[in-house]
């Protein structure tokens, strides 16, 4: 059994391209070209060079000594927080902008929740001199003022999504509507492993540099390519997809996905999609989805804007239902504590999304000889206001 | 014979109206359908509201949100429509997004439609390939026409594939846009309508998106069998209520 995508764009029963006909030519153009273009030598050279010189890759694989001592196991942190713009998101936007340029696109659109993907998209558009429009929920615009300012400084236009709940889900709807209205000159850079095929696979491939580096770096440090576990937080799931990618079909490596329980999985204010979701269609993909019995999409909640999404990428839906992945949900409170703990044990302030992944060590024992790689997907600068308010710093 | 095919066989241009079920008030669904028929509308598309209508502009988004807030559900719509065939004889189509149908169960949904006397479905985000692989037989067993969309960007090859996969009409989206967006048709649209008309397809074409008055209706139906009005009708009804229906329909037919 493979846990990667099949030729029809499915992971088990999840995935596909459930899109209105208006989007068919755009998505079909991508589907026909993404593998061909991304496997060309000239593409690979340009992608690798930008990842190295512009993003700052490879990012370190750091043995977290004091954190490991506290939890009596061996924890490595994959330092995606050290990427340019502060998170793994830029790996994907670099890949997609190079692809968009080769497809002759003149305009880029993107959705963003907390603003990290919006900033990463605005950044690569500035780098390439391409027009950039970012859709962001009106509520998120108010919550994430510094990232809105960053996007504007980078030359992007930030358009408030005024429909629905005015958060990430609605920003994604608005970006899709923009694409319907601009089908020929525009490329939509989706920020996670969600959306219609080929997006989940394409984004996972661009992020797969994370697990590729983990294999090489762990080999040097431990003499083996395989950790016992690889751990990542999952909203849509792009950092997780990248961290798992080369280990998906390797049963020696345990896969742990950490979701946001919000105020508690069953409080009605949660984003724990694996527990609360059912198979359905969101943003063009069949996946696990939080919805009413009537099939209306419901609003998730998490203190972390990056995990505040009612669905999950189809790869992760399949990892969950097949039992390949172990899914753990972490509350706001436990995540916030873990964020402070890593700051004080290792001198690294993580993004609140990432703090969820770090919080599992309080919940789940590991053996002392286990090697666990946690994908440290982003840095906490963007979350300072939330940390300040939460801890009255 | 299916009511849709019967209607399309008539020697006239078809006027079809889309409205969102449960809007402006929850129990408006059936009175609106009756009034539309009495005003001379040929076919009605009953919108099953969805929380995240990707292909729709603000007008239909807002009517969908309001309908859901009013308490509209799939089950409630079916109960509203349960006796519709005692009084209404024009073709009725349910249009909605695929997820609510999937949650109801595609087979159960189609069966229920057939019992009520619904003639067809339009599910824009159910792709052709998925339909053919998993659902075509269910639709056929229940006598439901599945209506597919085409756009100015749809290739000739795919239009032919769609023409072969359906047996009713083709929903010809007038331009690359969400609903309620375009104002008036230029030569780009009329060339496209003509290009498709000249393909000599098995199914007639009905134009949707961008039709709001008698002028756009007559331009759209110059080369096509009929046209669908959605957002403009919803705007009217949120302003004038059900009493504005007759005048609105007469203004479309009047050249």
Explain this structure to me?
- The complex is a heterodimer of chains A (393) and B (255).
- Chain A is of the alpha/beta class.
- Chain A has two domains: 10-50 and 89-202, Rossmann fold (3-Layer(aba) Sandwich); 58-87 and 209-391, 3-Layer(aba) Sandwich (Rossmann fold), CATH 3.40.50.1100.
- Chain A has 17 helices and 14 strands.
- In chain A, the strands form four sheets. In chain A, strands 3-4-14-9-10-13 form a six-stranded mixed sheet, sandwiched between helices. Chain A has a four-stranded parallel sheet with strand order 7-6-5-8, with helices on both faces.
- The model of chain B has no long low-confidence stretch (mean pLDDT 95).
- A nine-stranded parallel sheet of chain B has the order 5-4-3-2-1-9-8-7-6.
- Chain B is built from twelve helices and nine strands.
- Chain B is globular, with a radius of gyration of 17 Å.
- Chain B has helices at residues 3-9, 29-38, 58-70, 74-81, 98-104, 106-116, 128-141, 156-165, 187-197, 214-220, 231-240, 245-253, and strands at residues 14-20, 43-47, 92-95, 120-122, 145-146, 149-150, 170-173, 205-208, 226-229.
- Chain B starts with a helix and ends with a helix.
- In chain B, helix 5 packs across helix 6 (106-116).
- Chain B is α/β, with parallel strands linked by helices.
- Chain B has a single domain (13-253), classed as TIM Barrel (Alpha-Beta Barrel).
- The A-B interface holds A 16-22, 24-25, 163-164, 169-170, 173, 176-177, 180-184, 278-284, 289, 291, 293-298 and B 50-52, 54-55, 57-58, 61, 65, 68, 73-75, 97-104, 124-127, 130, 148-151, 153-155, 158, 173, 176-178, 181.
């Amino acid at each position: 059994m493979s846990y990667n995508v099949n030729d029809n764009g499915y992971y088990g029963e999840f995935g596909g391209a459930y899109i209105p006909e208006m989007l068919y030519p755009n998505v079909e153009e991508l589907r026909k070209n993404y593998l061909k273009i991304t496997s060309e030598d000239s593409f690979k050279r340009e992608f690798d060079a930008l990842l190295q010189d512009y993003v700052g890759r490879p990012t370190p694989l750091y043995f977290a000594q004091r954190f490991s001592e506290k939890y009596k196991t061996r924890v490595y942190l994959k330092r995606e927080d050290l990427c340019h713009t502060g998170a793994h998101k830029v790996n994907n936007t670099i890949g997609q902008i190079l692809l968009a340029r080769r497809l002759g696109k003149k305009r880029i659109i993107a959705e963003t929740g907390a603003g990290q993907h919006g900033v990463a998209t605005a950044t690569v558009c500035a780098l390439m001199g391409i027009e950039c429009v970012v859709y962001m929920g009106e509520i998120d615009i108010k919550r994430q003022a510094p990232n809105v300012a960053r996007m504007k400084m980078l030359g992007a236009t930030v358009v408030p999504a005024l429909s629905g709940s005015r958060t990430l889900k609605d920003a994604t709807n608005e970006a899709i509507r923009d694409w319907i209205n601009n089908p020929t000159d525009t490329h939509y850079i989706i920020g996670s492993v969600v959306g219609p095929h080929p997006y989940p696979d394409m984004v996972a491939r661009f992020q797969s540099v994370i697990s590729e580096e983990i294999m090489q770096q762990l080999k040097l440090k431990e003499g083996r390519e395989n950790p016992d576990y690889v751990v990542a937080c999952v909203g849509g799931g792009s950092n997780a997809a990248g961290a798992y990618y080369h280990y998906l079909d390797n049963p020696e490596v345990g896969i742990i996905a950490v979701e946001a329980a919000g105020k508690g999985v069953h409080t009605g204010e949660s984003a724990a999609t694996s527990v609360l979701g059912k198979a359905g269609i969101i943003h063009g993909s069949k996946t696990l989805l939080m919805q009413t019995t009537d099939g209306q999409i419901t609003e998730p909640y998490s203190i972390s804007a990056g995990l505040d999404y009612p669905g999950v990428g189809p790869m992760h839906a399949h990892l969950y239902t097949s039992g390949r992945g172990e899914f753990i949900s972490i509350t706001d409170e436990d995540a916030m504590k873990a964020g402070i703990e890593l700051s004080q044990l290792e001198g690294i302030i993580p993004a609140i999304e990432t703090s969820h992944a770090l919080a599992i060590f309080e919940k789940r024992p590991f053996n002392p000889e286990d090697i666990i790689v946690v994908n440290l997907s982003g840095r906490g600068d963007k979350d300072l206001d939330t940390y300040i308010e939460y801890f009255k710093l | 014979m299916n009511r849709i095919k019967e209607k399309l066989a008539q020697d006239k241009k078809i006027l079809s109206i889309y409205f969102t079920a449960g809007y402006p008030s929850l129990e408006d669904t059936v009175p609106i359908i009756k009034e539309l028929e009495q005003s001379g509308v040929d076919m009605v598309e009953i919108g099953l509201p969805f929380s995240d209508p990707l292909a729709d502009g603000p007008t239909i988004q807002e009517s969908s949100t309001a309908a859901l807030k009013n308490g509209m559900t799939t089950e409630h719509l079916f109960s509203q429509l349960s006796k519709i065939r005692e009084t209404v004889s024009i073709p009725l189509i349910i249009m909605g997004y695929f997820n609510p149908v999937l949650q109801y169960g595609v087979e159960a949904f189609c069966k229920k439609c057939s019992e009520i006397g619904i003639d067809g479905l339009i599910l824009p985000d159910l792709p052709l390939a998925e339909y053919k692989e998993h659902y075509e037989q269910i639709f056929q067993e229940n006598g439901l026409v599945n209506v597919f969309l085409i756009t100015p960007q749809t290739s000739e090859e795919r239009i032919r594939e769609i023409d072969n996969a359906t047996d009713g009409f083709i929903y010809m989206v007038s331009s690359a846009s969400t609903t309620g967006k375009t104002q008036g048709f230029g030569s780009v649209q009329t060339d496209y309508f003509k290009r498709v008309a000249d393909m000599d397809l098995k199914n007639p074409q009905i134009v949707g998106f961008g039709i709001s008055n008698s002028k756009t209706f007559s331009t759209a139906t110059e080369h096509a069998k009929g046209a669908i009005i959605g957002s403009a009708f919803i705007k009217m009804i949120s302003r004038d209520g059900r009493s504005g229906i007759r005048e609105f329909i007469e203004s479309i037919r009047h050249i």
